């Protein structure tokens, strides 16, 4: 009990520190801006470009009042809530999956998930991971009960996970096949399929019917279009994905190796634990197959794998080992959390030779300072010409149509007709926007007018010069804020010249 209370306290502390001091991420801007668009009556894909399932914008739109009051911090507060719920459901799932020592399994699972600072950071900043993990773990927990209603609930929740992040969709067929082979579950596979199928249709069918090309682009072509640059570079990306996963989740990796080395035969006699392993492995393989397999993708798979690991290993341990083992797990988790490089980013911007560059204020405070300047010049209800969408969210203003994806809205070679249909900008359209925008202010960090898609490469040098001239012809620089936002680049703030 004491270990469990301490674990909750550590998890809350890590979440609070990540919320207040965690580095900004560009994704936070366009996810929250998508929620704002939905709140204002727009639809993902059909009315603006979006690259994940549509569930998150609708969920956050319903709660957008928190963002209006607190800005990006409000979005982080919502995300933190879903992340902590995911950790709690991971604990409940481990409790359900373990065939003995259930309380210990639940506490251990919560420790592994809630007290991992890497996991805490990526379920605090506004991304799809926390909401998707919540749906995944709640759905798998439901499948632990032998009841038709639980099967329906499991299907509904796992379908919502797939509607939040498409890679989570692999869990649906895995769980469905698992139910078919569980003869004692009788028709649970049917109820699961009905619940999940109905929700999948409700989530995706309207978008594909009303905006097929835009939906296909956002969910599939946008991601498939990224070019890793050859076989050698592709293999490096894959190896780096595995290496960074081990680094971020080292304690779990050691636990998993222990399971497979010392108790694999006994563990795989537990059918529910087998389901968890299969689901976690399935998501991991989908992520590994991506052209750019970022390690933080695994944030949605990790709670499943953690629950599987403790449900497999702890029941095999003697009871006398449980209390000291949990205490040791708590100490190691805390030591790992507070020795992680993630913590360093709370207070420093890196190192100059032997000197640490300490942050004068947190990234969120810096964002608020920039937003104050924008609000003063736009009266809080105008338009901001920017690809830093988190600045627009913080200031409570709009961005021009076509810029909703921030730095990744620019496809220089895309035909105009296609770009207009997909709510993106090609070279001609971006130049026109810079030369004709009526926005009273413009703001560009090191990510602004700097990235071209689909290769995710720096814009051509000639284009960069053209964009800069177009901005300076109509806008006057009024401020420059160093160390701003993701990557801590310089944010240049411009005001429309009086003659305009």
What would your notes on this structure say?
By secondary structure, this protein is an alpha+beta fold. The chain folds into two domains: 2-346, no CATH class; 363-496, no CATH class. It contains 24 helices and eight strands. A four-stranded mixed β-sheet has the order 3-4-8-7. Helix 1 packs antiparallel against helix 5 and helix 14 packs across helix 17. The longest helix is centred in the first third of the chain and has 26 residues, at 72-97. It starts with a helix and ends with a strand. The relative contact order is 0.12. The model has no long low-confidence stretch (mean pLDDT 92).
Q: What secondary-structure arrangement, pairings included, does this model have?
A:
Blueprint: H1 2-21, H2 26-39, H3 55-62, H4 64-70, H5 72-97, H6 102-114, H7 117-122, H8 129-143, H9 148-164, H10 171-181, H11 188-210, H12 212-224, H13 231-248, H14 250-262, H15 264-267, H16 271-288, H17 302-313, H18 322-337, H19 341-347, E1 348-352, E2 355-358, H20 363-378, E3 384-386, H21 389-395, H22 416-422, H23 427-436, E4 441-444, E5 451-452, E6 457-458, H24 461-474, E7 475-484, E8 489-496
Parallel strand pairs: 3-4
Antiparallel strand pairs: 1-2, 4-8, 5-6, 7-8
Which structural class best describes the helix and strand composition? alpha+beta
Low-pLDDT windows of residues: none
Alpha-carbon distance between the two ends = 67 Å
- The percentage of residues in β strands lies in 5-15%
Mean pLDDT: 92
**Helical element count?**
24
What fraction, in percent, of the residue positions are helical?
55-70%
Please tell me how large the radius of gyration is: 24 Å
For the largest beta-sheet, the strand count, sense and barrel status come to: 4 strands, mixed
How many strand units? Answer: 8
* Count of structural domains: 2
Strand arrangement, major sheet: 3-4-8-7
| Morphology | globular
């Amino acid at each position: 009990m004491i270990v469990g209370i301490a674990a909750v306290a550590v998890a809350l502390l890590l979440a609070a520190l990540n919320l207040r001091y965690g580095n900004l991420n560009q994704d936070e801007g366009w996810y929250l801006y998508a929620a704002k668009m939905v709140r204002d009556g727009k639809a993902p894909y059909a009315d603006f470009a979006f690259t994940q399932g549509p569930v998150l914008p609708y969920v956050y739109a319903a709660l957008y009042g928190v963002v209006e009051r607190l800005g990006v911090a409000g979005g982080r507060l919502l995300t933190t809530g879903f992340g902590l719920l995911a950790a709690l459901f991971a604990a409940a799932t481990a409790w359900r999956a373990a065939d003995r020592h259930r309380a210990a399994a639940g506490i251990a699972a919560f420790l592994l998930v809630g007290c991992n600072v890497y996991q805490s950071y990526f379920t605090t900043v506004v991304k799809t991971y926390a909401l998707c993990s919540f749906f995944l773990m709640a759905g798998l927990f439901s499948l632990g009960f032998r009841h038709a209603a639980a099967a329906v609930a499991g299907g509904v929740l796992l379908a919502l996970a797939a509607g939040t992040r498409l890679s989570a969709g692999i869990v649906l067929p895995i769980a469905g096949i698992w139910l078919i082979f569980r003869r004692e579950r009788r028709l649970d596979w049917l109820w699961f399929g009905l619940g999940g199928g109905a929700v999948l249709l409700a989530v995706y069918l309207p978008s594909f019917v009303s905006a097929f090309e835009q939906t296909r682009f956002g969910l599939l072509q946008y991601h498939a279009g990224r070019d890793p640059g050859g076989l050698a570079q592709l293999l490096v990306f894959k190896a780096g994905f595995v290496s960074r996963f081990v680094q971020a989740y080292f304690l779990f990796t050691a636990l998993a190796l222990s399971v497979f080395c010392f108790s694999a035969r006994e563990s795989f006699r537990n059918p529910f634990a087998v389901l968890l392993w299969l689901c976690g492995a399935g998501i991991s393989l989908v992520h590994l197959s991506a052209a750019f397999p970022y390690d933080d993708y695994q944030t949605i798979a990790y709670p499943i794998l953690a629950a599987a690991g403790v449900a497999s290993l702890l029941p095999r341990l003697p009871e006398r080992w449980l209390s000291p083992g949990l205490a040791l797990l708590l100490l190691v988790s805390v030591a790992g959390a507070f020795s992680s490089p993630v913590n360093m980013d709370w207070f420093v911007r890196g190192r100059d030779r032997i000197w640490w560059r300490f942050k004068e204020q947190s990234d969120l405070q810096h964002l608020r300072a920039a937003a104050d300047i924008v609000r003063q010049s736009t009266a809080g209800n105008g338009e901001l010409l920017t690809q830093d969408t988190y600045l627009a969210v913080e200031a409570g203003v709009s961005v021009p149509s076509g810029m909703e994806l921030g730095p990744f809205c620019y496809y220089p070679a895309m035909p105009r007709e296609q770009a207009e249909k997909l709510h993106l900008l090609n070279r001609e359209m971006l130049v026109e926007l810079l030369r004709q925008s009526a926005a009273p202010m413009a703001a560009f960090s090191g990510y602004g007018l700097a990235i071209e898609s689909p290769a995710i490469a720096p814009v051509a040098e000639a284009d960069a010069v053209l964009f800069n001239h177009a901005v300076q012809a109509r806008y006057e620089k009024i401020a420059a804020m160093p160390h701003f936002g993701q990557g801590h680049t310089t944010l240049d703030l411009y005001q429309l010249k009086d003659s305009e």
